[in-house]
Specification:
The chain is of the alpha+beta class and 81 residues long. The protein is built from four helices and four strands, in the order E-H-E-H-E-E-H-H. Strands 2-1-3-4 form a four-stranded mixed sheet, with helices on both faces. Strand 1, helix 1 and strand 2 form a beta-alpha-beta unit. It is globular.
Length: 81
Amino acid sequence: MRITIYTRNDCVQCHATKRAMESRGFDFEMINIDHHPDAADTLRAQGFRSLPVVIAGDVSWSGFRPDMINRLRPEAIAARA
C-alpha cells in the first residue's frame, strides 16, 4: 500500500502525523504543497480543506488522526524491509 502525506512548512499537525507514521514504521512519501502548489489545487478539488492530507491506498483523511494511522494495515510497513 502506498502512503502519501501532503504537508506544508510549519504545520504542527503535519509534523505530528509524520512522527506517528515514523514511530509505527510506515513507509510513506511526503509532498510539501509549499513546493508543489498545484497539489493544493488537486486536494481542494477532492474536498480537502486542511492539512495534512493522508492518502493510504483507498483510505484518505485530513488532520492529525492517530485513530486512522492505527488502522493502517501492516503491509505498509513491509515496503521498508
